[in-house]
Amino acid sequence: MLNVVVLTAGPLFDLAEAKQHLRVDHDDDDTLIESYADAAVLSCLDFCDRKLVPQGAEPAFRSAALLTLGGLYNSRESIITGVSVALNPTVENLLRPYRIIRV
Predict the structure, then answer these.
(1) What global pTM score does this model have?
(2) Is 50 exposed, middle or buried (0-12, 13-18, 19+ CB in 10 A)?
């Protein structure tokens, strides 16, 4: 089960939804997918400097986390040396309205 609870109701999505998004129809990578899903949700929350998803922002965070999950899963064996990796622009656009910028 996904470990990151971001709402009082639970996680943004479950393993079945994650696998559907990734187009995975086997159980071999379930543990890996759960780990990447947790990392994706935490990455979205961290980008916004939040501990919880704001009420009403669930669709944006869900979409951003699934897109991030796809990037993690599809690039899991890539090695990038000397390159800075930026956040997916679509993820950034989805989350920007909910980002807290502290001064």
Answers:
(1) 0.85
(2) middle
